[in-house]
Design a protein that fits this description.
Elements: H1 5-24, H2 30-38, H3 41-44, E1 48-54, E2 57-63, H4 65-68, H5 70-77, E3 83-87, E4 104-108, H6 111-121, E5 129-132, H7 138-147, E6 152-156, H8 159-171, E7 177-180, E8 193-202, H9 207-212, E9 213-223, E10 231-237, E11 243-247, H10 269-272, E12 276-280, H11 291-300, E13 305-309, E14 317-322, E15 327-333, E16 341-346, H12 351-364, E17 373-377, E18 382-386, E19 393-395
Parallel strand pairs: 5-6, 5-8, 6-7, 8-9
Antiparallel strand pairs: 1-2, 3-4, 9-10, 10-11, 11-17, 12-16, 13-14, 14-15, 15-16, 17-18, 18-19
Helix pairs in contact: 1-2, 2-7, 11-12
């Protein structure tokens, strides 16, 4: 006979989580509250990594009920936090004995963001949903509870994550259609769908997604890129194979879909040694620290990556590098006491000129929020526009 105490404790945690999400206003419908109360997140996150600081930088400590205690583990499971479940494309909490370095490659997204996106998607009874990025399977299970498993299809790129999610979803009692494949190609066999929701970010909307969502249907995804500027876009698919929508409020970011991830920069030292022009910068490193300016920087330099270097105890240099075009822009603090920056630009393209032009146009429009931007998708082009009378626009990378 099983001990009912852990189940009662988990149920109380779910109730408290639902109450907290309602208090924020992100959870506001009875149907999604019922899903939060019903779906046991602990099944989907049996272990995870807790972030910490080590002598060499960020480290990740495994958290499991066997080592941390079931009450401590369960309490953390029901915090409104993203829980990292995989590092470097294959390292899981059960694989290590203590803190390790690494880059997160899979996670259980914080519940408030999961619920907020499901509320934004707003599927009605009977709607069929295609989810890109099963992850742990928690969001998949929430949709199954709301819509029924036969109305949910979920695709996961990573084989190990797909297998773990399948086990957890089955254990929780749900039976959606699960596919281990590249989510950017979608699911032609199950199309057309009423809605598509992505729990990873993309640089551009994949053409398959447009084909596989019914006219009038919704695509909800995060547009991001190699500089990590992000925006959550909700698009309505048209009769003519196009889509149009706006960016929603909030600072929403996801790990980028692996086929869209940035390539390795390799040895870029020779690129930085090429002839360059230097001038005072009108905008400096602050553009990487504020949400909308970073989004604009991403739009203006869509094929660039950012890296910081320091030589022999000198000042930190922030490089924006487009290896494909052989162009770069390096920011460094000015020598004068004004606290500004200088920018050194080389290669065939002046990256920082484009960045500053985008920032200046936004400021001239009154520095509106990200909700003032629109996204238009056609078979030949995808364009983000600042929706003001003289708003500039930028083409997303191909």
């Amino acid at each position: 006979m099983t001990d009912p105490a852990p189940d009662r404790l988990a149920s109380r945690h779910r109730t408290r989580l639902a109450d907290r999400l309602e208090a924020t206003g992100l959870l506001h419908s009875a149907a999604w509250r019922a899903a939060v109360l019903a779906v046991p997140r602990e099944i989907f996150v049996p272990a995870f990594f807790r972030r910490g600081d080590g002598p060499q930088g960020t480290v990740w400590a495994p958290v499991q009920p066997e080592t941390q205690g079931s009450d401590t583990w369960l309490e953390e499971v029901y915090t409104d936090e993203t829980l990292v479940t995989q590092l470097d494309g294959g390292v899981h909490p059960g694989d290590v004995d203590g803190p390790v370095g690494g880059e997160p490659t899979s996670s259980s997204t914080l519940p408030s963001l999961v619920v907020r996106m499901l509320e934004d998607l707003d599927p009605k009874d009977g709607a069929r949903v295609l989810e890109i990025g099963t992850g742990t399977g928690y969001s998949t299970a929430l949709m199954c509870h709301r819509l029924g498993g036969d109305h949910v299809t979920s695709i996961e790129y990573d084989p190990a994550s797909a297998a773990r999610a399948r086990t957890a979803i089955t254990t929780a009692g749900y039976s959606p259609r699960l596919i281990q494949s590249d989510g950017l190609t979608g699911d032609d066999d199950g199309a057309p769908y009423d809605h598509l929701i992505a729990t990873c970010s993309v640089r551009t909307i994949p053409p398959a997604w447009l084909r596989q969502v019914k006219p009038g249907g919704t695509i909800l995804t995060t547009i991001s890129g190699w500089l990590h500027g992000s925006g959550l876009a909700r698009l309505t698919v048209g009769e003519d194979g196009t889509a149009f929508g706006t960016f929603l409020p909030g600072t929403v970011s996801f790990m980028i879909a692996r086929p869209h991830a940035a390539p390795d920069l390799g040895d870029f030292s020779s690129l930085l040694r090429q002839p360059a022009e230097e001038r005072p910068a009108h905008h400096g490193q602050e553009v990487f620290q504020e949400w909308v300016p970073l989004f604009l920087t991403q739009l203006a330099a869509p094929k660039a990556q950012r890296i910081s270097t320091r030589a022999d105890g000198g000042p930190w240099l922030v490089h924006t590098i487009d290896v494909g075009s052989g162009s770069f822009a390096t920011l460094v603090l000015s020598d004068d006491s004004g606290g500004g920056f200088r920018v050194r630009q080389g290669g065939p393209h002046r990256l920082w000129d484009d960045v500053e032009a985008a920032i200046d146009a936004w400021k001239a429009a009154g520095s509106p929020p990200q909700t003032a931007f629109t996204l238009t998708v056609t078979p030949t082009e995808q364009r983000v526009r600042l929706d003001t009378p003289e708003g500039p626009s930028w083409t997303l990378p191909t």
